[in-house]
Write a structure and sequence with these properties.
The chain has 14 helices and 17 strands. By secondary structure, it is of the alpha/beta class. It has 2 domains: about 130 residues, Aspartate Aminotransferase, domain 1; about 250 residues, 3-Layer(aba) Sandwich (Aspartate Aminotransferase, domain 2). Strands 4-10-9-8-7-5-6 form a 7-stranded mixed β-sheet, with helices on both faces. A 4-stranded antiparallel β-sheet has the order 13-14-17-16, covered by helices on one side. The protein has a two-stranded antiparallel sheet with strand order 1-2. The chain binds pyridoxal-5'-phosphate (PLP). Pyridoxal-5'-phosphate binds next to helix 4. The site of pyridoxal-5'-phosphate has 14 residues, from helix 4.
């Protein structure tokens, strides 16, 4: 996979690669601004999924016939491509159902066996529930660093809480509710100096930031294909090989074993030790196609377009009377969370939907963060590379109408 040197996107041509963007919603043009929940899929990904089921579908790793060979080859080639995208070794890539499952795997198989009474997992106040609850289920105390008024991690508070009881640090790279990009490299270095392992929740990063996990040096990195133009139900756990070797398997079943006997079984090599049962072959192949598609657009062009659109949208939203933006860090991706005086977020969402504008309303699986900002819910417009200024104009016009109706 090589990145093209595009500096500017051909946006109409790029949008045309996403068939769903042509859908009419209540008779209106679709402005899809719910990308932090899930992104739409380009033709390249749809084709990869379709090709797999038309020409290669069979179970992997377990048969000598031609279709099984095709399925296995394509599935393992997807692992190579995903590892190359993340710049790590293929043995360090465990396939999962998504970020949530990846974090649960680490909580159960890495943290739980090491946990002593009173041990803590240090989080931040902007974590997604899937980076809070698995640690609690594993039996750890969860402690969170304070969030500033701009929606950044208070690093002084974070350093203060990084203490002798911290057994693991877990941090979101990009906040789904605020858009904030956290200084994860700096946090990893600080934890490393104390010998504390770090998990990074990369769910919202993969579509927006070039990644080099070798350089980042996190112990664990969790992400989902569907947030980066790939299929739902498929994700990745990156883990340093030494951890994977030392960790016990967590799901038992086919493929994760070397030998099985009634007096005991032995485990397959990594990463297969963590991949029990028939995997999501099409998911892996679709994920690899999505990552290739991202690279083909070029990071420079993606970054310039998404930041340009964020810069276009932010002041237009901010000037709507009664609208308050939540998450105003200078280091953020295209997430615009807001509340409007006198209007419930869900009512706002319904009115926007009538105008063809898809946004998410609610707590975005970040209840502690909502509490921090003193709100029960926000409306959230989140950008992807296919969004354009017309999407933002449609959102702003619909918000003006909503304000007249509700406020
Ligand atoms: N972490 C963050 C920051 C997210 O935004 C999400 C999904 O919204 C998740 C974790 C969970 O991802 P998934 O539902 O794909 O497992």
């Amino acid at each position: 996979m090589s990145e093209t040197s595009n500096a500017v996107l051909n946006l109409p041509a790029l949008r045309a690669q996403f068939p769903i963007l042509a859908e009419r919603i209540h008779g209106q043009r679709l402005a899809y601004l719910d990308n932090a929940a899930t992104t739409q899929k380009p033709e390249a990904v749809l084709r990869a999924l379709d090709n797999y089921y038309r020409h290669a579908n069979s179970n992997v790793h377990r048969a000598v016939h031609e279709l099984a060979a095709r399925a296995t080859t394509q599935y393992e080639a997807a692992r190579d491509r995903i590892a190359a995208f993340l710049k790590v070794a293929r043995e360090e890539i465990v396939f999962t159902r998504g970020t949530t499952e990846s974090i649960n795997l680490v909580a159960r198989s890495f943290l739980q066996p090491r946990l002593q009474p009173g041990d803590e997992v240090l989080l931040t106040g902007m974590e997604h529930h899937s980076n809070i609850v698995p640690w609690q289920l594993a039996g750890a105390r969860t402690v969170a660093a304070r969030i500033t008024d701009d929606g950044e991690v208070d690093l002084e508070d974070w350093h203060r809480k990084l203490g002798p009881r911290t057994r693991l640090v877990a941090v979101v790279q990009v906040s789904n509710s605020l858009g904030t990009i956290n200084p994860v490299a700096q946090m990893i270095r600080a934890a490393r100096e104390r010998g504390i392992p770090v998990l990074v929740d990369g769910a919202q990063a993969v579509a927006h930031l070039p990644l080099d996990l070798r350089e980042l040096d996190a112990d664990f990195y969790a992400c989902s294909a569907h947030k980066a133009y790939g299929p739902t139900g498929f994700g990745v756990l990156y883990a340093k090989r030494e951890h994977l070797e030392a960790m016990p398997p967590w799901h038992g079943g086919g493929d994760m074993i070397r030998t099985v006997a009634f007096d005991g079984s032995t485990w397959n090599e990594v990463p297969y030790k963590f991949e029990a049962g028939t995997p999501d072959m099409a998911g892996a192949i679709g994920c690899a196609a999505a990552l290739e598609w991202i690279e083909a657009q070029g990071w420079t062009a993606i970054h310039a377009h998404e930041q340009g659109l964020l810069d276009y949208a932010t002041p237009r939203l901010a000037e709507i009377p009664g609208l308050r933006l939540i998450g105003t860090s200078a280091h953020k991706v295209g997430v615009l969370s807001f509340v409007m005086e006198g209007a419930h977020a869900h009512d706002l969402g319904s009115i926007l939907d009538q105008h063809g504008v898809a946004v998410r309303t609610g707590h975005h699986c970040t209840m502690p963060l909502m509490e921090r900002f003193g709100v029960a819910a926000t409306a959230r417009a989140s950008l992807a590379v296919y969004n354009d200024r017309q999407d933002i104009d449609q959102l702003v016009q619909a918000l003006h109408k909503a304000r007249r109706l509700l406020a």
